[in-house]
Write a structure and sequence with these properties.
Blueprint (H helix, E strand, L loop, with lengths): L22 H18 L7 E6 L3 H4 L4 H11 L3 E5 L13 E5 L9 E6 L6 E3 L15 E5 L4 E6 L12 H17 L5 E6 L12 H5 L21 H13 L2 E3 H5 L11 E2 L10 E2 L2 E6 L6 E6 L17 E5 L9
Parallel strand pairs: 1-2, 7-8
Antiparallel strand pairs: 1-14, 2-4, 3-4, 5-6, 6-7, 8-12, 9-12, 10-11, 13-14
Length: 332
């Protein structure tokens, strides 16, 4: 299948799909990158982050684009991590950011990372094993390494409903690799964000009984722990909890918000029509190393209601994280 996203340049600079630039344009870009590099030498670190699964952005955001643009300008994040991307987002309000696109063979997959130009990552990888030239299948990973921490943007595969290669088995392999990754990356604090496709605890769904007993076409998996709504099966939730505990990681939203919030406490909301009306899940996260938990200033979800207010055309709402500066960090 034809690739929908072009490889980024070796240094991570983004170029829109177009004709080859003129010599004048190339020189200008080179000079600009040099200036950005000088700013990066000040070793400032990003403090404000935004993650969003921009599901069906190109099709559904037409009526919400100005609203979303205003939202990004108001939040003014240093880093924007998106999942399921479309080329519509290569325009404003992202002009002040460098961008790294993952590679995906499907227009329904992929991730993208925007980083303000004054915060130049030391390294960018597109696979959990940090192989330079390798991209994860479906473009599910972008890993940015900064001076004092790593930022991991992932779009986790859906667990599915059946015991088959593209469902349960795929999710088990993913969770196993994520556990290996966090254990092997303990030398530096981690910020892990994205659509993680799991609701960890009962407080993280609006209707626990509904999601626990959900079935597709009456199918019941052989293992009871695999039963229920994908993202809320006992097997997934236990594996996710194990990743957090073994990796010494903290759920930033739940660290600040201990109580259930039926209005604002979920990042995914079902279609306003049908059996999922009013049913919600929290499956989009900022997970941080325990070393960073005392620096968490805020972690918020910016959508609400069964009519998907603040979801900007997706069935997921944006989630933001802000950290307090470390001793040696400065604001861009």
């Amino acid at each position: 299948m034809k690739r929908f996203f072009k490889p980024v340049e070796k240094d991570g600079s983004f170029k829109k799909p177009a004709l080859s630039p003129s010599p004048t344009t190339a020189v200008t870009r080179e000079q600009k990158d040099e200036k950005d590099g000088e700013k990066a030498d000040e070793r400032k670190e990003p403090l404000k982050f935004l993650t969003w699964n921009a599901n069906s952005l190109l099709l559904r955001v037409k009526n919400n684009w100005s609203e979303f643009k205003k939202f990004v300008e108001t939040i003014d994040p240093d880093v924007i991590a998106l999942q399921i991307l479309m080329r519509a987002i290569s325009n404003a309000p992202f002009g002040n950011y460098r961008v790294w696109w993952s590679l995906a063979d499907s227009k329904y997959a992929g991730t993208v990372l925007f980083v303000k130009k004054c915060f130049k990552p030391k390294n960018i990888f597109f696979s959990l094993d940090r192989t330079v030239s390798k991209h994860e299948p479906d473009g599910r990973v972008i890993l940015a390494e900064f001076e004092s921490f790593r930022l991991l943007n992932t779009y986790a595969p859906n667990n599915g409903w059946k015991e088959e290669e593209t469902s349960f088995q795929r999710r088990r392999k993913w969770d196993k690799r994520m556990l290996e990754f966090v254990l092997q990356s303990s030398d530096k604090p981690l910020i892990w964000c994205g659509d993680l496709n799991v609701s960890h605890q009962e407080i993280d769904v609006s209707h626990p009984d509904f999601f626990s007993n959900a079935k597709q076409n009456g199918y019941v998996p052989p293992n009871k722990e695999d039963s229920g709504q994908p993202g809320f099966t006992l097997a997934e939730r236990r594996r996710f909890g194990n990743i957090l505990s073994e990796g010494k990681l903290v759920d930033a939203y739940r660290f600040l918000h201990k109580e259930k919030d039926m209005e604002r406490g979920f990042s995914w909301s079902g279609n306003p029509v049908g059996k999922y009306r009013g049913k919600r899940m929290r499956i989009d996260y900022f997970i941080v190393s325990e070393k960073l938990k005392d620096r968490i200033v805020s972690c918020e979800m910016h959508g609400q209601g069964i009519e998907l207010q603040g979801f900007y055309g997706s069935d997921h709402c944006p989630v933001s994280l802000e950290l307090a500066p470390s001793i040696d960090s400065n604001k861009c």
